[in-house]
Amino acid sequence: MKKYFIHAVLLMFMITSCNQAVAVQEPTPTFGIGAPVERWPLVYEMGYSYIETGVVRFLAPASCDSTFMVNLEEKRRLNARIISLSSFLPRAMTITGPETRHDDILVWAETAFRRAQMAEIPFIVLGSGGARHVPEGFCHQEAKQQFIQLCKRLAPIAQRYDVTIVIEPLNTGETNFINNLSEGAAIVRAVNHPNIQLLADIFHMKRENEPASNIVTYGAYIKHVHIAEKENRTPPGIAGDDFREFFRALRQIGYTGNIAIEARFEDFEAQAPIALQAMKEQFFDN
Q1: pTM score, two decimals?
Q2: To the nearest 5 percent, what fractions of the chain are helix, strand and coil?
Q3: What range defines the domain where residue 270 resides?
Q4: pLDDT tens per residue across span 144-168
């Protein structure tokens, strides 16, 4: 009996220890960087886990399949990992205003999403500040409804190709529509589809003096993150911006998704390793 009691105590100790070990594990995001596919070997060697490039640059929705296939073969040859694509729509593909091009956008999206699936790319960023800019004198509430209706039409296409669209709030210097997480989350809620979610861009949040606490408030919708320093959109670690409060908010919501640098580099090879080190140090700094 004593032997069985000792074994039971040891078993309970092991279970408790395992549970405690799981409880103290920190959520770990995946750090990526905006770069063309040909830079993958370089950024992989630096320690980045993926790259983010552009829809027009990589998927080439306006071109025939053969053009895209050249890009896809290059990705496969380099074994490049692309998680996300930005710059979804050209400025001329207007989303809001008296003259919209929603039908053209759907055709564009069908091609883009199909090719994204072929390349195993799960996220497309819907920033496109020029395309969604509300014309002067046009009703913003009507523009919001136009945007929601477009997203409702885009959602099933995205779902068909296993793509998630993440809506990116932009600062007021770039567009006059969807400028913070609250406005972006309102769109996501109105569309109410799993393939339409939200992006938190820390650069834009800083430019708009948006509190980091909004990441916690709208954390249920946040599936992708961008980052750059506030003043000149330099990569982390160059001007010395402190991102810790934003990282704490991401840790609070248990964020384990992607954090991509979307910045202006003066010397990519010199600054990219500094940026990765700065992000990791600040993210895990208690």
Answers
A1: 0.91
A2: 50, 15, 35
A3: 27-283
A4: 999 999 999 999 999 999 999 999 9
End-to-end alpha carbon distance in the chain? 47
Phi, psi of 31 (to 5 degrees): -95, 125
CATH code, 93: 3.20.20.150
The rounded Cα 81 to chain-centroid distance in angstroms is 15
Q: Does a structural domain hold residue 269?
A: yes
Residues 17 and 227 sit within 8 Å (Cβ to Cβ) = no
Q: Is residue 38 part of a domain?
A: yes
For residue 58, what is the DSSP state?
A: I
Number of domains present in the structure of the chain: 1
15 contacts: CB under 8 Å, gap ≥ 6: none
Q: Quick one: DSSP state of residue 62? A: T
Q: Which of 209, 206, 198, 197 is nearest to 243 (CA)?
A: 206
The verdict on residue 4 lying in a domain is no
**Within a domain: residue 221?**
yes
d(CA 257, CA 181) in angstroms, rounded, equals 17
Strand partners, 258: 30
